[in-house]
Amino acid sequence: MAEINPDGVSIKGCSIIYAPKGQAGEYAPLATNPYRGCGHGCAYCYVPLVTKQPRPEFDAGAVNRQDFLKRLYSDAAKYQAAGITEQVMLSFTTDPYHPGSTSLTRTTLEVLRAHGMAFCTLTKGGSRALVDVMAFRPDRDAFASTLTSLDEQFSRKWERNAADPADRIAALKAFHDRGIFTWVSLEPTLDVEASLAIVEATHEFVDLYKVGRANYLKEITRTTDWRDYTLRMVDTMHRLGKRHYIKRDLQEYLPGGYPNPLRVTQHHRAI
Ligand code: SF4
Known about the structure:
13% strand; 11 helices; alpha/beta; 36% helix; TIM Barrel
């Protein structure tokens, strides 16, 4: 019989569906990564460091992980047997809608569904994700995008092969219009004004924001007033009535007793 970890959401010994730790763990209770590498070429990407993959190889594009589907079936069956139905997030060490073939993403979503699990995709692929929109269920799943700026030139500098911000925003709106829960990752924050402007531009079709800072980017970290940013961000969220989660790196700047739940429901009721 599968052994459940004390956190109650993951199963010991499963490595394809796993419980992310640290900063990644703030995003999702469970995750899976169908691909190795990512063709988006984000200048701030930490993944090659973590996975010890040479940066040129990582940036050359995503390839299907060896035996991924076989291992996914095996892990999903164990989760099903244990009655665990949490959202599984795609992905932390790749992008589910990278610029190459992403047919494995659809299959992954279908396998999770077939085993009673929910899912969430986090992507900078913009409208590339629309190919799978019908696989998402309003009462179970979520669609999310990382945004660092509304400005295409700025994005091109930092995320050279990702969809431009307008396309990512159009995808969020398209999922929202289908009744799917949407959220935006404001991490990394590369420019305080840019991140605040994203909230103003997207709040009508985004259900939740997860706010972080810039890590691994010493110059930005050193020159940004993170306390002022955090306080302005929570003011903006309150003014617009938006749900939000302030990540641990910024929590020291929150007012005492500020309600900031780590996990909230990331789906709607069925439409
Ligand atoms: S989309 Fe994500 S995984 Fe891909 S290069 Fe950018 S930060 Fe790295």
